[in-house]
Write a structure and sequence with these properties.
This protein has 261 residues and is α+β, with helices and mostly antiparallel strands. It is 28% helix and 23% strand. It is globular, with a radius of gyration of 18 Å. The chain starts with 5 loop residues before the first strand and ends with a helix.
C-alpha cells in the first residue's frame, strides 16, 4: 500500500550508520506567498510561546532525548502554525469554511486539540521544510487504533485526515546562520528577530494527505523510522517515528472534493 524507506548501512566519517532513504517523493510546488500580516501574527504567537515566555512548548519530543532550546522551538512553532494558516487559506479559497488556526498561548502540558475543523471533520496538519518528504508521527504518541494518546482524557484524540504541508525558506537554516537556533535568548532583541522573519518570502506547498485508516495501516504494519537512525545519511532521528512518504499520499484535489461533498 505504501512504499517503505530504503534501509542501508553507510559509513560516514568513519562511523557505520543505520541510514534510511526516500523511495517515493513529490516535488515542492508552492501554492502562494504568505501575506505579511499573517506572518506577523504567527511570529507574535511563536515568539510568545518561546522567547516571550507567555506559553510553553515541550522541550523534548515524545520518546526523544534532545532538549530543544527556544530558538529551535520558535522556528518549529512558527513553521507549524504558518502552514495551518496556509491550509486554512487554501480551503477557504475553494469555498470550504474552516475554523481559523488557534493562536492561544498555552502553558506546558496543554495544547489545542485540533489544528483545523471543517464542520465535524478534524484535520491534523503536519509541516516540514520545503525539501522534506515525510509525514512523521512519534510512535509514543499514537495507539494501534491511530488515536492520539496525549488527548485521550479530553476525547479529542481522533483525526479524520492528516495533511503534510511544506514551507520555504528553510527556517532552521535561517536561525542557524544568525546563531539563534541553539539559543534561549536573543541578544539583539525581539525587533531584530521579527525583522529577520518578516524579511523572508514565506511560501507553502501541500504535499498530500492520508486518512485515519491509512495511519492505522502504517502503525500496524510497522512503518517505523527508528530512534538514533539517520535519514538520508545525515539527519539523526531523535525519536522513533511512524512515517508516510509524500509520493504515496493522496493529492489535495481529492481532499477538496471529499470536504465539499
Amino acid at each position: 500500500m505504501f512504499n517503505r524507506l530504503e534501509h542501508k548501512k553507510n559509513r560516514v566519517n568513519g562511523e557505520l550508520r543505520d541510514c534510511y532513504f526516500w523511495t517515493s517523493t513529490r516535488v515542492f510546488d508552492p501554492l502562494f506567498e504568505f501575506p505579511k500580516n499573517v506572518i506577523g501574527r504567527v511570529f507574535d504567537f511563536s515568539y510568545g510561546m518561546t522567547f516571550g515566555q507567555e506559553g510553553e512548548h515541550r522541550e523534548y519530543r515524545s520518546g526523544g532525548t534532545h532538549k530543544r532550546e527556544n530558538g529551535e522551538l520558535f522556528i518549529n512553532t512558527f513553521q507549524g502554525k504558518l502552514t495551518e494558516f496556509g491550509l486554512h487559506q487554501t480551503l477557504n479559497e475553494q469555498g470550504i469554511e474552516t475554523s481559523e488556526p488557534d493562536l492561544s498561548k498555552w502553558e506546558k502540558g496543554k495544547w489545542d486539540t485540533v489544528d483545523l475543523m471543517v464542520d465535524n471533520t478534524k484535520l491534523n496538519v503536519k509541516s516540514t521544510k520545503f525539501k522534506g518528504n515525510l509525514l512523521l508521527l512519534e510512535t509514543k504518541d499514537w495507539d494501534k487504533d491511530g488515536r492520539y494518546i496525549p488527548n485521550k482524557e479530553s476525547g479529542d484524540n481522533y483525526y479524520d485526515f492528516f495533511i503534510l504541508t511544506r514551507v520555504s525558506p528553510d527556517g532552521e537554516s535561517l536561525m542557524k546562520k544568525q546563531r539563534l537556533y541553539y539559543s534561549n535568548t536573543i541578544h539583539k532583541g525581539r525587533v531584530y528577530l521579527r525583522k529577520l522573519i518578516l524579511g523572508e518570502k514565506w511560501k507553502i506547498d501541500i504535499a498530500g494527505f492520508v486518512t485515519q485508516d491509512d495511519i492505522v495501516y502504517v502503525i500496524n504494519n510497522d512503518y517505523i523510522l527508528p530512534q538514533g537512525s539517520y535519514l538520508n545519511r545525515f539527519t539523526r532521528m531523535d525519536a522513533e517515528n511512524y512515517y508516510v512518504q509524500s509520493g504515496d499520499m493522496k493529492k489535495m484535489d481529492e481532499l477538496i472534493k471529499i470536504l465539499k461533498s
